[in-house]
Amino acid sequence: MAVRLTLPVIFFSSHFPPSSSRSRSKTCCSSSASSSQMELNNEFGVTKFKEFPYVSAPHRNLMVDLVSTVENRLGSQLLPCSLPPDVQYYQNQTGSAHASLHTRSGNKPSHSQIDFILGSWIHCELPTGGALNITSLSAFLNPLTDAPNFLIELIQSSPTSLILILDLPPRKDLVLCPDYLHTFYEETQLDTRKQILEKIPEVKPYISSSLYIRSLVSPTAIMVRIETEASQPGRVEEVIKDHVDPIAKEVLGIWLDQCACGKREVGEAERAILEKRDGLIKIKTIEVDLGSNFPRLFGPEVADRILGAMRDVFTV
Amino acid sequence: MAVRLTLPVIFFSSHFPPSSSRSRSKTCCSSSASSSQMELNNEFGVTKFKEFPYVSAPHRNLMVDLVSTVENRLGSQLLPCSLPPDVQYYQNQTGSAHASLHTRSGNKPSHSQIDFILGSWIHCELPTGGALNITSLSAFLNPLTDAPNFLIELIQSSPTSLILILDLPPRKDLVLCPDYLHTFYEETQLDTRKQILEKIPEVKPYISSSLYIRSLVSPTAIMVRIETEASQPGRVEEVIKDHVDPIAKEVLGIWLDQCACGKREVGEAERAILEKRDGLIKIKTIEVDLGSNFPRLFGPEVADRILGAMRDVFTV
User: Fold this and answer.
1) Tag placement on chain A: N or C end, fewer CB within 10 Å?
2) Is residue A6 part of a domain?
């Protein structure tokens, strides 16, 4: 299977079977549901998301820690997840693919710089007998700041192979903005983290097949494939625990301190350019990254529902 | 030696010793020289450049073929080289470093889309007994078109190691311009060339230490290090002849057909942005790439003369 999912991925639950009549509502659930039922459904969805089932303990712990760190630090800047339950957790018709999606928009009245955060996991049984597991967390800022976004994605297609994408994707043309490059990528020493990982013998470069994705990421993006020997069971988990975990937390810390919570001067003209660029990235993310994979993994009906919900979040 | 020369490099001759009194004139040589003397000097400089001494036959043949192809195809669109002789060919005080620089500006009255082409070689004896040889050819377009530039650079620091940079660096923010990405990088199948090279066992990724250089190149940039065994003498030359040579010529062909000679609609506002972006790239190229290496390799006086001449060419 050609894995091209290289930006936030998403999921679907056995507890909430597909319903073709459901509209792409931005509200939590259907209008007939009571408020307490809505809360219960939402709580269930959030719990399912944070379970990160199917992946190893070091992988799960890393994702849970990252999500908790973001949610604790940003606190009231984030609105509760308002996705319908059958988008928060879903599956395909045969039950061979399960997934969860969790989004929280920025609280505009609080002058939050957060556009939204988006977390997800996907589990898909492979015809070869193994399974594909993808977990991701990304955070998009709004045009009150021009600081970079955050992205982590782990794609595991076998017990001996893991792809890691970890980056602060820039929101400006770095060639035109050497100061921006200096502030967010040179001064933060992001490249030293990349170099540390690349020195591990099992770590090889990973090159996305999408040229658009390659253009989106920063020059310090960590895009690697961890390939271990079958004779060394548990080595992927060891690399996650000892190397990926601390580096991912450092990079998230840099993003929280200097991007999400740092202040930047953004003029009106620049804000318009940011809005255009951010908007294009979101459209292309759905089109390039998810549009081609989702119908294949979940069938057209589920894919349509999930991508519709994604578009709603992306254009809020 | 930390090689950071990753855009056009330049050189200095024993035949034209440094002269601190020489101004950074854009004319061919000093005002006291006769016209025929100027022509002779120029011819000598061009001949020295096209010798590509010190490198292996396959390496030299490739560079000579690329320069000839560009000059023959662009013909009268290019003005003759107008660099002073002591910039066309130069050396350091001890004679341990030799170099040559060759530039030809676009002929504006002919409505050429060429800003200038810049070729160079450098030879530098290393304290360890070996030598560093760098050859490069780059071509910059002007704002009559927004099509990508061309760049090839070969850096050989030992008989068993060669770095290759081959790219059509974009002149726009690819994230904002998916059509541009599609036209010049997807439709041209540039990535297949990259993949062919990367499949050769001796070929490893090369990552520039400069984040600015990483930002400048395209998502299909070939940036590789060819590392061969000492037990296989001549293997680097074999890889150049059998793989680098045909691929470099194909990429140059794409650039000539679709970039240098293709027509693009460029509005006035867009032209201003291109001018700003092109200008910044040239400044940063000198600053990041050459400014730090040249004084070290050639001493401050020679470095000052060569970088001054470069600045003149870059701002014509």
Assistant:
1) N
2) no
- Residue B245 confidence (pLDDT) above 70: yes
Q: Which CATH number fits the domain that encloses residue A264?
A: 3.40.1500.20
Does the pLDDT value for residue A77 go beyond 90? Answer: yes
Q: How confident is the model at residue B291 (pLDDT cuts 50, 70, 90)?
A: confident
How many domains does the structure of chain A reveal? 1
Q: What is the pLDDT of residue A239?
A: 97
Determine, yes or no, domain membership for B42. Answer: no
- Please give the Cα distance from B297 to B125 (Å, whole number): 10
Spatial contact of B85 and B45, defined as CB atoms under 8 Å apart: yes
Q: What is the rounded CA–CA span in Å between residue A21 and residue A99?
A: 21
Task: Pick the more confident residue, B235 or A315.
Answer: B235
By CA distance, what is A174's nearest residue in B?
B215
The answer to whether the Cβ–Cβ distance between A214 and B211 falls below 8 Å is no
User: Who wins on pLDDT, A42 or A61?
Assistant: A61
Q: Which residues of B touch A220 (CB under 8 A)?
A: 211
Residue B234 domain flag: yes
Please give the backbone phi and psi of residue B299, each rounded to the nearest 5 degrees, phi first: 85, 155
Query: For residue A194, what is the nearest residue in chain B, using CA coordinates?
Result: B207
CA dist B294 and A181 (Å) reads: 24
Contact (CB<8Å) B174/A205: no
ipTM for this model: 0.85
* Residue bearing tokens 């999921």: A11
Residues of A with CB under 8 A from a CB of B: 173-176, 178, 181, 185-186, 191, 205, 211-212, 214-216, 219-220, 276-277, 280-281, 284
Domain coverage including residue A241: 56-314
The reply to whether residue A277 touches residue B211, judged by beta carbons under 8 angstroms, is no
**Nearest CA-CA distance, residue B136 and chain A, Å:** 21
Per-residue pLDDT tens digits for B96-111: 999 999 999 999 888 8
Distance of alpha carbon B142 from alpha carbon A30, whole angstroms: 58
Looking at the partner chain, which of B173, B220, B284 has a beta carbon nearest the beta carbon of A211?
A: B220
The 8-class DSSP code of residue B144 comes to: T
Terminal-to-terminal C-alpha distance of chain B: 33
The closest of A187, A145, A186, A152 to A167, measured between CA atoms, is A152
From A209, which residue of chain B is nearest by alpha-carbon distance?
A: B191
Nearest chain B Cα to A173, which residue? B173
pLDDT at residue B7 above 50? Answer: no
| pLDDT tens profile A280-291 | 998 888 777 677
Q: Indicate whether B12 belongs to any domain.
A: no
User: Would you say residue B18 has pLDDT above 60?
Assistant: no
User: Average pLDDT for residues B177-188, to the nearest whole number?
Assistant: 97
Q: How many angstroms separate the CA of residue A33 from the nearest CA in chain B?
A: 42
Chain B residues whose CB is inside 8 A of the A223 CB are none
Residue B49 token pair = 């450049």
A215/B175 touch (CB, cutoff 8 Å), yes or no:
yes
- Estimate to the nearest angstrom the gap between the alpha carbon of B247 and the chain centroid: 17
The two beta strands, A114-125 and A97-105, are: antiparallel
**B85 closest CA partner among B135, B47, B132, B52:** B47
Q: Which residue has the higher pLDDT, A244 or A14?
A: A244
